[in-house]
Design a protein that fits this description.
- The complex is a heterotrimer of chains A (298), B (435) and C (324).
- Chain A is built from twelve helices and no strands.
- Chain A is an all-alpha fold and 298 residues long.
- Chain A has a single domain, classed as Orthogonal Bundle (MetI-like fold).
- The relative contact order of chain A is 0.18.
- Chain B contains 21 helices and seven strands.
- Chain B starts with a helix and ends with a helix.
- In chain B, helix 1 crosses helix 14 (285-292) and helix 11 packs antiparallel against helix 12.
- With 435 residues, chain B is an alpha/beta fold.
- Helices cover 67% and strands 3% of the residues of chain C.
- Chain C contains 13 helices and two strands.
- Chain C has helices at residues 24-63, 80-86, 89-120, 127-135, 142-152, 159-166, 178-206, 210-218, 223-234, 236-250, 255-258, 275-285, 289-319; strands spanning 65-68, 72-76.
- The chains are: A mainly alpha (298), B alpha/beta (435), C mainly alpha (324).
- Chains in contact: A-B, A-C, B-C.
- Chain B: Pfam families: SBP_bac_8.
- Chain B: Residues 1-29 form the signal peptide.
- Chain B: InterPro entries: Bact_solute-bd_prot1, SBP.
- Chain B: Keywords: Signal.
């Protein structure tokens, strides 16, 4: 589950006709406190580790050995955060993570939309087998090609630079698949035919019809790709040096500093979690919708 | 103050630091004008930029600015890795790719031998100006068979024994520095016997971990794991097995160990809980102890080390031959490792000098450390450095074999998933796999 | 994934278009029509061949050579690297660990996710709030998750052992013993992914035709009965989907075990060393790309093998007794 493109698509999102079956149990009956108890407990479990990270990060290294241990945040968070920022190249790492995530999100959307459009709406020879091939590659653990990929990157002199992280992630099979699914049902064929009859070139047709229609799915894909790249560790860890890390790689340096001061380490973990947590506040709703839409079975 | 203490606490491994040691030093005067620096201008007026890759804290920040002032045509940039391991991986990678290495690359002694396997990748740094600059064993370790020198020594990690005077006192044992040194004794047997005596009247374990103690013991063996020609003897060498049995008997059978994995979170937390009474401490460990044990009173340092002197860690500056300005880089490395400069680095970050002249300096002798009961740490560590008589041979396989050994000891002492014999068998298998 | 068939074939032009222009325009038009699709899909394929397929096959090439990370390609050694790996107890240990962690993370995860999805699949208040709530861990990077949990699971001063202590349970050696360490690592994986899978199952549940339940109610089935005899069978394709995706990722697990202690090697006795960590150790710490490639290739074949088994099972399930 580490670096796998976390495919939220089971089968096509079907805007329009994918109306969920009417709720059973009817609107009258509201579930009782047991339901909310279970949900509350699960939610607490989901949030607690993040709180714990902040809690320890706001005290000092000795907090864990105190008896009784305090359960409220101490006043050291900013001091610890400042130390973390001094110790690891935090701003650079954040910037790098942002560059890498934003770039791959953008390119993935562009290339996946193009390919998805072609697969869903255009006629060409070998389309069927090629699409099957795309789907099949989703099951291939390409991550295991690390050794040669690394050799290639060092031949090119790219090791240590963000290019080495961005290039292999320019577009994903999952992205192509996702856009194909969406385009298939979102654009009426007549629209494309009509544009063609009007003499519009292929790329114009794509631009005006395909791209416009693809927007909601493209935004979702961008979001998932962004999060996926942001949280990715294995490949950036291998190919980027300590000089030029992404956020998870820099975070790893904190612990690897051969010496564990957990208040610092967890202050760092909290800092590294904040950007996506803030993003989540704004787009969490869409994220939920995206996962559920992608999962609706056909 | 609080913040700076904690920053330092991350900067461990060999070259990091005993900054506390340096805190009491007065800043160096500007009296030293250095002649090697002037030779830097032999490059003419050509504008060049040099990069220096270090890890943890070398204390070079001000020195590099100074060098730029002395050589207006040279710009120096420092690249700092957070840990030695990371620096090692990064260097491996850039040597493999034949590009990307800095003009000067710092190397830690434990993996120096590994890089000595690739002499073509490094410039020969032999030079008259550095003759006799360092302790002999320090230079020897960076010298190739054909006499080429691939690294200039920076710092060393002479080892003493740090102890909790308050716990000694509570157990009715002499707790002053001289008395404690005598109690700890001269040999490893003495040290372990002292532990038994101590624990007879105390519940506190004698030392922190068998693995750390092993480091102290094995660094006193000339050819522990490999012959000078590189033949691996680790599994047949009776001395290795005897030492292994000795440390594990003391740690497990006699229960002198706190059974903590060094650098683990539990180990760190134990400093706050009277986790153990003594530990082996190279100079750079003082800062670690001070950080971990913040608020705990009673730490002191004894001017002794079982089994003779010992060194743990220390670094070198090398010049990879792939660089464009090898000559200029060599001059900079020469200048940085000169005694005057090393003393400034010591004042800044506590990196204990490996240069003979610096070791004899008054500044060093005058350094004390308030956390360790105002112990004359400069003098003690200088004594300890002098007591080092054996230069352990560390061949290309030293690093992996020692890692396998550390695992073997951890299995018995910390994890307790194996006994000494079964863990030894796994060690043998690990070493065989290196072949 | 029979999805291709659902893409409606574009309507064949039944009224032949009148050529509007002749010459270049026409030729361009035809060329445009014919080649544009390939142009559009080419970025994916080019990239996949360069960064996906080529490295996979080149891995096989590297694996039959001596290959030092600094000195580069050495002599051809045939199957020697594979022999070394297959006779190394570390490999088998890593294989065991990988599977154990995988099972400990995927099985409970699916069960909890389905249960929670069923809870969410009621007429509750503040639906969006709860759905967003369960998804929060998804945005925490695995490295941070691992740092947090390895603190919680610290052997002597960890919160988990403290809690166990208050119930009179002896502290567990999370960083010492094999199974506890797997459990701790699996917990990290479950923390991050359960919420995500809840949403997938929830969506699938909502798509279950309502009349099935109505029929069940008429037959007098209670809510539990309904859950087990209608919901779960209907979710089968989704369960298989979740299991397949988590297999591919789970067998390559690296981040969490790597960050479980300060050394990242998977324990002194290899208690939680996984195959990917083993690969990394061989390649980047010991500097032997030949052996690392051999491990990569073995792991690759293992995953493909499991993929084929998965596929076979999926087909059987979807062809037999599927009443939809």
């Amino acid at each position: 589950m580490t670096a796998m493109p976390s495919a939220p698509a089971h089968v096509a999102p079907r805007p329009g006709n994918g109306k969920p079956a009417k709720r059973r149990g009817s609107a009258v009956r509201r579930p009782g406190w047991v339901t909310y108890g279970i949900l509350g407990a699960f939610l607490a479990g989901s949030v607690f580790p993040i709180y714990w990270s902040y809690l320890i990060g706001s005290w000092d290294a000795q907090v864990l050995t105190r008896d009784p241990m305090p359960w409220w945040p101490g006043g050291n968070f900013f001091t610890n955060a400042a130390t973390v920022i001094d110790t690891i190249p935090f701003w650079k790492a954040t910037m790098n993570s942002f560059i890498v995530s934003a770039t791959t999100a953008m390119t993935t959307v562009i290339f996946a939309t193009l390919a998805g459009y072609a697969f869903a709406k255009l006629r060409f020879k070998g389309k069927g087998p090629l699409l099957v091939f795309v789907i099949a590659t989703m099951a291939v653990p390409t991550q295991l090609g690390v050794v040669p990929l690394y050799l290639v990157m060092s031949k090119l002199g790219w090791t240590g630079s963000l290019t080495a992280v961005i290039v292999p992630a320019l577009v994903t099979a999952f992205g192509v698949f996702w856009m194909t699914q969406y385009m298939g049902s979102a654009i009426p064929d007549e629209l494309i035919e009509a544009a063609r009859v009007d003499g519009a070139s292929m790329i114009r047709t794509f631009w005006h019809i395909g791209l416009t229609a693809a927007r909601p799915a493209a935004a979702m894909l961008a979001l998932f790709t962004f999060i996926q790249t942001w949280t990715n560790f294995f490949w950036p860890f291998i190919v980027l040096g300590p000089e030029n890390p992404t956020l998870p790689v820099a975070l790893q340096q904190l612990q690897a500093a051969f010496f564990v001061d957990y208040s610092l380490v967890l202050a760092g973990a909290t800092l590294a979690t904040l950007p996506l947590l803030v993003l989540f506040i704004f787009v969490g709703r869409q994220l939920v919708a995206g996962i559920m839409q992608g999962a609706v079975k056909g | 103050m609080h913040r700076s203490t904690r920053t330092r606490r991350l900067t461990v491994t060999a070259t990091a630091g005993a900054a506390a040691l340096a805190l009491t030093l007065t800043a160096c005067g500007s009296s030293d004008s250095d002649d090697t620096a002037d030779s830097g201008s032999s490059n003419g007026d050509e504008e060049i930029t040099l990069t220096v890759a270090t890890f943890n804290e070398f204390g070079y920040e001000d020195l590099l600015t100074e060098y730029e002032d002395l050589n207006p045509n040279i710009t120096v940039k420092q690249k700092k890795a957070a840990t030695a391991d990371e620096a090692r991986d990064a260097l491996r990678n850039s040597l493999g790719a034949n590009s990307g290495a800095s003009d000067i690359e710092a190397i830690e002694v434990d993996w120096l031998a590994e890089f000595k396997q690739y002499p073509d990748k490094f410039a020969d740094l032999t030079s008259d100006s550095v003759e006799g600059r360092w302790l002999d064993w320090k230079t020897e370790a960076a010298t190739l068979e054909d006499g080429a020198l691939i690294g200039y020594g920076t710092d060393i990690g002479p080892e003493a024994v740090c102890y909790r005077a308050d716990l000694f006192e509570a157990a009715g044992i002499p707790s002053d520095r001289e008395g404690a040194a005598e109690f700890i004794g001269e040999s490893w047997d003495d040290y372990f016997d002292a532990g038994k005596e101590f624990m007879a009247s105390s519940d506190v374990p004698w030392f922190d971990s068998a693995g750390a103690t092993w480091q102290g013991m094995i660094n006193q063996v000339q050819n522990a794991y490999e012959e000078n020609d590189g033949t691996i003897i680790a599994t047949e060498n009776p001395e290795v097995r005897e030492t292994y049995d000795a440390v594990l008997t003391a740690a497990v059978d006699e229960n002198l160990s706190a059974h903590l994995g060094q650098w683990s979170q539990d180990w760190t937390d134990s400093f706050q809980n009277d986790g153990f009474a003594t530990m082996l401490c190279p100079g750079w460990m003082l800062g670690v102890i001070e950080g971990n044990a913040a608020g705990v009173e009673g730490w002191d340092i004894a001017d002794t080390f079982p089994g003779g002197g010992g060194n743990w860690g220390g670094s070198y500056l090398t010049v990879p031959s792939q660089g464009e300005n090898v000559e200029a880089a060599k001059e900079l490395a020469d200048w940085l490792t000169a005694p005057e400069q090393q003393m400034k680095a010591f004042a800044a970050k506590g990196t204990f000098p490996s240069q003979v002249e610096a070791l004899d300096s008054e500044e060093l002798a005058a350094a004390t450390n308030p956390f360790f009961n105002d112990a004359p740490t400069g003098e003690i560590l200088a004594n300890r450095a002098e007591a080092v008589s054996v230069t352990p041979f560390k061949g290309p396989n030293y690093f992996p074999i020692n890692t396998a050994m550390a695992d073997a000891i951890t299995r018995v002492d910390v994890d307790q998933t194996d006994d000494a014999d079964s863990s030894w068998e796994k060690f043998v298998a690990d070493v065989d796999a290196l072949g | 994934m029979a999805t291709t068939t659902r893409t409606p074939a574009p309507a064949r032009g039944n009224t032949p278009r009148k050529p509007r222009r002749i010459g270049f325009g026409e030729r361009f038009n035809r060329w445009d029509l014919k080649f544009s699709p390939y142009l559009y899909i080419s970025p994916f394929f080019i990239l996949f061949f360069i960064t996906g397929l080529f490295p996979l096959f080149y891995t096989a090439f590297v694996s039959v050579h001596d290959w030092d990370t600094i000195m580069g390609q050495g002599t051809y050694v045939g199957m020697e690297n594979f022999q070394f790996i297959l006779s190394s107890p570390d490999f088998w240990k890593a294989l065991r660990n990988t599977f154990s962690i995988f099972l400990l993370s995927s099985v409970p995860q699916v069960i909890i996710a389905i249960t929670l999805a069923a809870v969410l699949d009621q007429n509750i208040r503040a639906k969006t709030f709860w759905r967003m709530g369960v998804l929060i861990p998804y945005v925490v990077t695995p490295v941070a998750v691992a740092l947090i949990f390895s603190n919680l699971f610290a052997d002597k001063f960890g919160l988990v052992n403290d809690m166990l202590g208050t119930f009179g349970i002896d502290p567990v050696g999370w960083h010492k013993e094999v199974l506890p360490s797997h459990f701790a690592i699996a917990t990290m994986v479950n923390f991050r992914w359960t919420g995500y899978n809840i949403l997938i199952f929830l969506a699938a549940m909502q798509a279950v035709p309502r009349d099935l339940y109505e029929a069940a109610v008429i037959d007098g089935a209670g809510r539990f009965r309904q859950f087990f005899s209608i919901t779960v069978p209907q979710l089968r394709p989704t369960i298989i989907f979740v299991v397949i995706t988590s297999t591919i990722g789970g067998l390559q697990i690296f981040d969490e075990p790597r960050m479980f202690d300060q050394f990242g090697r998977g324990g002194a006795d290899g208690q939680w060393q996984t195959l990917t960590i083993y690969l990394y150790e061989l390649g980047w710490t010991q500097g032997d790309f030949g052996r690392a490639s051999a491990v990569a290739w073995l792991l690759f074949m293992l995953i493909v093998l499991i993929g084929i088994i998965n596929f076979a099972i999926t087909r059987r399930i979807s062809t037999s007794g599927d009443k939809r």
